[in-house]
Amino acid sequence: MAGQILIADDLSLNRTVLRGKLTSACYRTITANGGIAALALARSHKPDLVLLDYHMPDMDGLAVCQELRADPKTRDIPVILFSATADHGHRLSALAAGADDFLAKPLDEIYLLGRIRSLLRSVAHRDEWRLHPNTALQAGLAEAAGAFVVQPHLSLLSGQPDASAGWLSTLAAIWPEARLTGTSVANALGLDAPEQAPDLFVISPEALAISGLHVIAELRSRSATRHSEICIILPPAARANAAMALDLGAADILTLPLDRAESRLRLEKIIAHKQLADAQRRTLESQLGLAAFDPLTGLHNRNHAVTRLSRTITQDQGKFALLLIDLDRFKEINDQHGHNAGDDILQQVARRMQTDLRKSDILCRYGGEEFLLAMPNADLETARHVAERLCARIADDAFQLRNSDTRLTVTASIGISVHGAPKHPLTGEMLNQLLEASDKALRSAKLTGRNRVVSAQANVLA
């Protein structure tokens, strides 16, 4: 669905002209004839973007922007302020009030549409998180409300070595607290890892003259630099390139001659946006990691283990052993000593089994008191030796319960199945057969006395 844009201007002709331009660009619009009406519509309709005239008789655009930023329901809506008075004070006041940009009338239609597209892309990305059903992922949004990054890393891209010192001096005057480095376009595109990339690339006019605007797209496409923000410096004569730069992925444009205060406000907004995006990614990575592990034992969970097994199957055609390990009479522990005691035993058993497994082995909590151990490149003799050692590790020393003098002796039964690679490459279907065979062998171990190892019969795996 096209983005909805609120247009606020006290002059009917201005609203009509803007509405026509945006409708032609396939945006939906709503209009307000003053600041008070604009504020009410923003709160009731929650548009994707707001275009505000600076001067309106009932409530000027600056006050409306400040009110929008103060309201949690509207604070993240992008705002563009515009005015026929484009002096230094108006620009700074607009940006300081939280506007995403300030434009002078008559509005440059090409730049305006480019800026709208850029801001709406950010809105769409943000809303993917806000609408996610996982509340922990949404918490990544709240993380950005914390302390601001006091020393962001800004890297200047300059096409001429002798110009770098001058630009770095200029950036140091704009943001003295920032960490500033200089590099070439080639070096920036050759970075190997995200941790080597800066928070923000500032591209000088000389670099743009040599490399062209496509350097923005190149930085956006590389895995090492795609999460870095990009800001370009343009001379007034090249202002026509601004819309294309935004479409290619630049976060903002600084126009020569640089105004220190305005440039600082724009750079701070870029870094704040990156801080939010970084918080979202950290939260996502954390959640993906948690999704792969059993929270009680710290072992991989069943789903992750099966996924790893399937991947290993396609990469490894050697012999492959599957061990199902089940704690004996575990229900009696829960019934007699409580579920906290049972959880304590499961945690300790997991730690004991992890002691000397190979790096290639995959150990997971399969469910309840049952564990799965997958052993690539292991024949029956090797698997049986490991299984017997695990039985001994579990049974030989009694388990000390936390906050108690109670010590419990626990045993385990293990069922083994082994796939012989030379004649039968391991497939997903064979994996299911191995699991069924291990389960059958485990049941046999239980029925014939517990605390023992039983392997599946050879014809099960033929």
UniProtKB/TrEMBL annotation:
The keyword Nucleotidyltransferase is assigned to this record: yes
EC number: 2.7.7.65
A Gene Ontology molecular function term of the record: diguanylate cyclase activity
InterPro entries tied to this protein: CheY-like_superfamily (IPR011006), Diguanylate_Cyclase (IPR050469), GGDEF_dom (IPR000160), Nucleotide_cyclase (IPR029787), Rev_trsase/Diguanyl_cyclase (IPR043128), Sig_transdc_resp-reg_receiver (IPR001789)
Keywords tagged on the record: Nucleotidyltransferase, Phosphoprotein, Transferase
Domain GGDEF span(s) in chain numbering: 318-458
Main EC class the enzyme belongs to: transferase
Name of the protein described by the UniProt record: diguanylate cyclase
Lineage: Bacteria, Pseudomonadati, Pseudomonadota, Alphaproteobacteria, Rhodobacterales
